[in-house]
Design brief:
The protein has two domains: about 35-55 and about 130-435, Zn peptidases (Aminopeptidase, 3-Layer(aba) Sandwich); about 65-125, 2-Layer Sandwich (Alpha-Beta Plaits). About 30% of the residues lie in helices and about 15% in strands. The chain has helices spanning about 35-45, 50-55, 75-85, 105-110, 140-155, 205-220, 225-230, 240-250, 305-315, 345-365, 380-385, 410-425, and strands spanning about 65-70, 90, 95-100, 115-120, 160-165, 170-175, 190-195, 235, 320-325, 330-335, 365-370, 390-395. The chain has an eight-stranded mixed beta sheet with strand order 5-6-8-7-9-12-10-11, sandwiched between helices. Strands 2-3-1-4 form a four-stranded antiparallel beta sheet.
């Protein structure tokens, strides 16, 4: 999550309780499928993942040693240094940044000469209970049920399968929209990938891709949508970090959980999944301390969640564009993130800039190179483009906080639906965004 804001926002809210596991079978082609009976059974059984998360990880991170902190910083170089020291930067102001960090990291920042203006223990910021304003959000089980319903009501168009499992053995569910290839069957159609919730506390980033899938289903016979469904291979993964999400909502108050739920050798919990991808892993803007919110993990793709995305993308060379949703900041980023330099291919850079500008016009967000805010290594888009040549973008959604309430969902979904349709539409030739010929200058 990254944001440019004029004021410090500390509002928090809560998600609705209840979760369950959705089962899957396999069709003749070997790809998992879901029947209406499977969906109904999953809804009725409601296996208590939330309760399991709360009891199993009773000795987990909670808020121990973690603070919301405001630190003076005026340049992207200073912000990059703070990120490397473990600060999860959430807001950027002209003369300071705000975010979350462990007390050990804060002391290290002070030792480096950074001035801390404010510290608030995360436990002091949490609201009690699950207020009605958050009941519209989907937890893992509710998300899986809705995905299953979409697959069951759209046979021949929508299929649901798992990209892999998490540390706590949850499935990383995928919805695929393709009118001529279901499940795991390959497709020659240009592909697009939408991903949500690398960071557990960014719950709005589940809603945007999930409800985009609902939009595709509800409007499948309308010309604009039907054209894409007939000509594109669309994959949607609304929740890459379900373990962290379930932990974040497992009690009567949010836990501000960012990372996944790996148990590190020292007992600290979690790896920052958006610092764990393999391109320029372990460099700037990531921490090597397991207690840090920006801990990059013991090695590139060490986490089952990021390894699953790696395998998923490698198995689908037709994927040409992607969006990784984060919150909150009203920004659209393109590579590089690890370097202040622009990508060297001028045609690619022009396409990135033009597509980002168009999507910014559709959302009202601001488009910029990721490292213009601060540099960070091991992120999704750098690997997507640097290794796979996928034109990947990171969206920082709106909302003003990690827990903005249900009122934030509808406007965010509306704005980002138009932008997602645009990027999927140019997946056959990203260069049309800038008016260049496909492949020119490569």
């Amino acid at each position: 999550m990254r944001t440019r804001l004029s004021g410090l926002v500390l509002s928090v809210s809560l998600l609705a309780p209840g979760a369950f596991v959705l089962g899957a079978g396999a069709d003749q082609g070997g790809s998992p499928t879901l029947s209406e009976e499977t969906v109904r059974g999953a809804v009725q059984s409601a296996a208590p993942l939330r309760e399991r998360a709360g009891s199993r990880w009773k000795a987990g991170p909670e808020y121990d040693g973690r603070y919301w902190v405001v630190i003076r910083a005026t340049t992207k170089e200073q912000r990059t240094a703070l990120a490397g020291l473990g600060l999860s930067i959430e807001e950027v102001h002209p003369d300071r940044v705000a975010g979350t960090a462990h007390i050990k990291d804060i002391e290290a920042m002070k030792a480096r000469g950074f001035v801390v203006d404010e510290m608030v223990a995360l436990g002091d910021l949490a609201e009690k209970g699950f207020p009605p304003k958050d009941e519209a959000y989907h937890d893992y089980g509710e998300m899986a049920a809705l995905m299953g319903e979409l697959a069951a009501k759209n046979p021949g168009l929508v299929s649901m399968f798992s990209a892999g499992k998490t540390w706590q053995d949850r499935e990383i569910w995928v919805l695929r929209f393709n009118s001529s290839a279901s499940g795991l069957r390959p497709s020659s159609k240009p592909g697009a990938l939408l991903m949500g919730t690398h960071h557990a506390r960014e719950h709005l980033t589940t809603e945007v891709p999930l409800l985009f899938a609902v939009h595709l289903s509800d409007n499948k016979n309308k010309p604009e949508v039907k054209k894409l469904l007939d000509s594109r291979d669309i994959h949607i993964i609304p929740m890459i970090n379900p373990d962290g999400v379930e932990y974040d909502v497992a009690t009567s108050q949010y836990r501000w959980q960012r990372k996944n739920m790996r148990v590190n050798p020292d007992g600290e919990i979690g790896v920052d999944l958006n610092r764990n991808y393999g391109y320029e892993w372990g460099g700037v803007g990531a921490s090597d301390q397991p207690y840090s919110d920006t801990y990059h993990g013991p090695s590139a793709f060490s986490e089952p969640e990021t390894a699953a995305i790696k395998r998923f993308v490698e198995a689908r060379p037709n994927i040409k564009t992607s969006i990784s949703y984060h919150s909150y900041g009203s920004l659209i980023f393109y590579p590089w993130s690890y370097s202040y330099d622009p990508i060297p291919n001028k045609k690619d850079l022009a396409a990135f800039k033009a597509a980002a500008a168009k999507m910014a016009s559709l959302t009202g967000y601001t488009a910029e190179q990721s490292s213009d805010l601060y540099a960070s290594s091991g992120d999704t888009d750098d690997w997507m483009y640097g290794v796979r040549r996928v034109f990947g973008f990171t969206y920082e959604l709106e909302g003003g906080s990690f827990y903005p309430g249900s009122a934030a969902i509808a406007p965010a979904v509306k704005k980002n639906t138009a932008a997602a349709l645009y990027l999927i539409g140019i997946a056959d030739d990203i260069y049309q965004a800038s008016g260049s010929e496909a492949g020119a200058g490569r």
